[in-house]
Design goal:
This protein is an alpha/beta fold. The protein folds into 2 domains: 118 residues, Rossmann fold, CATH 3.40.50.2300; 95 residues, Winged helix-like DNA-binding domain superfamily/Winged helix DNA-binding domain (Arc Repressor Mutant, subunit A), CATH 1.10.10. Helices cover 41% and strands 22% of the residues. A 5-stranded parallel sheet has the order 2-1-3-4-5, sandwiched between helices. A hairpin with a 4-residue loop joins strand 7 and strand 8.
Length: 225
């Protein structure tokens, strides 16, 4: 998951970036609404976490601007304001959910995963196509109930392709799921990882699920639900 985090409190921003990185997500973490807008304009994200109490432009204005720009990714609000009026205002501004500070990281991650599942059209914590099942909580793949031994990067690629099944996904979109920094990104790595992923799926009895679309990227051909 590629995540945009807009939080001006440096310690919390660092803590969340570290924890989300540890559980396999790529985080673009910024301290202001203005920086958040720039990130959203130049990079693709699966979800955003936005603090309401930002310096300068506030979180609510940032959310409105993101929606006016046509950004449709889910937005989760972090707020120290617990009254219902603030929550309603945040949701009517275009946010999808909110978490009140202080919070437990596990709750925040669960809320994010649920939002991303719903935005991708999945309700359960699994994605299925035929005999292939992806367990989103355990981050494991199986074919006919037999585990498929994927590395963390292979799993991330498979999850992203399955979430966007029947869509051509560019290599650039996939590499963003793996590396937070531009200077670490090498599109050749994607070719190697997709090749390994294909071989493991084929060895498990599921072949031809990932199609190469010349000059565009990759297409997961299975119908996922």
């Amino acid at each position: 998951m590629k995540l945009l985090l807009v939080e001006d409190e440096a310690l919390l921003r660092h803590h969340l970036s570290t924890r989300f990185g540890e559980v396999g997500h790529v985080v673009d973490a910024v301290a202001s609404a203005e920086e958040g807008l720039l990130q959203a304009q130049h990079f693709n994200h699966d979800i955003a976490i936005i603090d309401l109490g930002l310096p300068g432009m506030g979180g609510l204005d940032l959310i409105r601007q993101l929606r006016n720009m046509g950004q449709t990714f889910p937005i989760l609000i972090l707020t120290a304001r617990g009254n219902w009026q603030d929550k309603v205002e945040g949701l009517t501004s275009g946010a999808d959910d909110y978490v009140v500070k202080p919070f437990q990281f596990e709750e925040l991650e669960a809320r994010l995963n649920a939002l991303v599942r719903r935005s991708s059209g999945f309700v359960q914590a699994q994605i299925r196509t035929g005999r292939l099942v992806l367990d989103l909580n355990r981050r494991q793949a199986s074919v006919a109930e037999q585990p498929v031994p994927l590395t963390a990067f292979e799993y991330r690629i498979l999850e992203y392709l399955m979430r966007h099944h029947q869509q051509v996904v560019a290599k650039e979109r996939l590499i963003e799921q793996l590396y937070p920094d531009d200077d670490e990104r090498d599109l050749n790595v994607i070719e190697v990882l997709v090749g390994r992923l294909r071989r493991k799926l084929e060895a498990a009895g599921e072949s031809q699920l990932i199609e190469t679309v010349r000059g565009q990227g990759y297409l997961f051909t299975g119908h996922c639900q």
